[in-house]
Every structure is written in structure tokens, then in C-alpha cells.
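Researcher: Following up on the earlier apo prediction. This time include the ligand. It's magnesium ion, with the SMILES given after the sequence.
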Amino acid sequence: MHLHRRNRTLRKNESIRKMVEETTLRTEDFIVPMFIIEGHRKEEDIPSMPGYKRYTLDVAVEMAIKYRNLGLRSVLLFVKCKNELKDNTGAEALNPEGLMQRSIRAIKTAVPDLVVMTDVALDPYSTYGHDGIVADGEILNDPTVEVLAEMAVSHAEAGADFVAPSDMMDGRVGAIRRALEQSGHTRTGILAYSAKYASCFYGPFRDALDSAPGFGDKKTYQMNPANRIEAIKEVLDDVKEGADIVMVKPAVHYLDIIREVKNQVHVPVAAYHVSGEYSMIKAASEKGWLHYQSAVLEATLAIKRAGADLIASYFAPEIAGWLQER
Ligand SMILES: NCC(=O)CCC(=O)O
Ligand SMILES: [Mg+2]
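Model: Understood. Below is the ligand-bound prediction.
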């Protein structure tokens, strides 16, 4: 054989493989989603998300300190709103003493250098489980955007570093940016869920927050999984409206979208490795069908290789632990 080069040379042993490795996971890449509930000193299992928990705020603060000590830099907060506080307009979302606002203050006080990001959407607060105000079975865009902008200001007021609108209403990034500017919150950033697909892989998350849509589905605002070009349109709109970071969601089933977005924008790209994607690996590993750590690392590496600068992941605390051991 007359080969110009033997490609296997670069795979010969672990040292050379490490030297030419193109993608590496860093603890700093991760955003840790946190589910916070009312009450004292409680942790609740989420049956469809084995190993992941909901915490009362006192415990969540301790977890946030643990995450920071593991080298993690950021958390993304979700709260479980009590049923009796839910309505159609998300009034509780604006309560300065609401669970989200108290959580932001408590975590920023305990761990000031942890970047606190907050979910901005109505679904956890909505009697209908939808991301917007409902009228005659429709999810209204413009009235919802007004509430989302107020919600973002309320989170900024409480000390959020980034607000993260996850609702997919049109024009909300621009409205939030304007509202933040007008209220003097010029240092609060926006992580926009720009290309969020109407995915079945959010199922376990909806169990976690009890936020499944009460009627219909979310296809009139979240994107059709069949579409790619539309994702670029959504992302470019959000960048123009002032998004500091854009996000693609889910992640592993949308690696092509992550890459395409990465090639199109000059802002950091995040991807959300969502609950269903987490639970698939958990379940298969529990059955002994996949090697847990290998599956987690390969899936996560794929998300980064596809182009994600940041990864929201339920695996983040475990991965941070493994990286620390290395
Ligand atoms: N806004 C958050 C979701 O819609 C779902 C996330 C997940 O499934 O992990
Ligand atoms: Mg949009």
C-alpha cells in the first residue's frame, strides 16, 4: 500500500488522542436547571426524572453553594407555583414576594458570583398550563408579551443576571429589552429561547412543575420539529431585538439546528438538553442497556461539538463532579 498518511496515527494511544481532541467539556459550559418549591427543608423526587429533585428554597440555596463549589457558574431557576395561585394572566408571576423573586434574592445573596438566570413564561402560573394568556382557546401574543416584560423587570429587580423568556411569543425579546432599559436594569441580560420546538421530550419537565397544557398543545407558538430554516429566522429576529444569548431546545435531537445557528450568529449559542433526553439515558442505564457515564458524556459532547457554547443540562452537577475528579 502507498498511503500518503495513516490517519490511525492520531488514534494510536490515549495521549495522542487527547492531544488532538477537538472538543472538550468545561464545567463553565453548563447551566444547571433548578426546580424550586414552597416549604421547608424538603427535597422531592420527580418520578419521570430519576435522580433529579425539586427543592424547597432553603435546600436550593445549599445546592447552589454546592454547584458553585463544583466550579459551575450558572443556574436557571424554575418555580412550582401553587395551584391556588394560578390564573389566566400570571398575576403571581409579578408578585415581588413570589417564590421566584425570593429565590433569586436568596441565591444571589448566598452565592453572589453564581450567574442566576430565570425562566420567563406564564405556563407554571397559568391555570391552562399555556405560555400565554388564553382567550377563546387561543394563546394571545401581544397581551402576553406585556406581562412577560413586567415579569422580566420583576426578576431583574430581585437581582437576576439574565432573564430567559421560554414562551416563543413574537416580539417578546425586544419588549423585554425596552422594559429593562426603561426600568434602569441596563445590566440584566436576555437568554432567549429562540428556536424552541414543540417537542414530546418536555414531558418529564411538565411532571416536575405540574405545568402540562390543560387543553390542546403548544404548536401555535413552539416550532414544528420538521423545520430548519424557520429556526434561523427566529434566531435572527431575537438577535436583532437584543438577545445576548440565543438558545436551541431540545438539544440532542436538534444538533443540526445548533450547528446552523452557530454558523449564523455572533452571539453565544446555548442548547437545552431537556428532561426527556435526560430521562431516556437514565432509563436505559437503569435497565443496563447503556453505560451511564459514557452515554452522558457522549451526548453532552455532541451538543458542544454541534456548536453550543453553553448547555443547560440536568446532568451538569454530575458532569462537574466527574470533571473535578479528572
Ligand atoms: N421551559 C422549559 C421547558 O419547556 C422544558 C424543559 C425540559 O423538558 O427540560
Ligand atoms: Mg421568536
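Model: Residues 119, 166, 202, 205, 274-275 surround 5-azanyl-4-oxidanylidene-pentanoic acid (ligand 1) (CB under 6 Å).
Researcher: Noted. I'll compare it with the apo version next.
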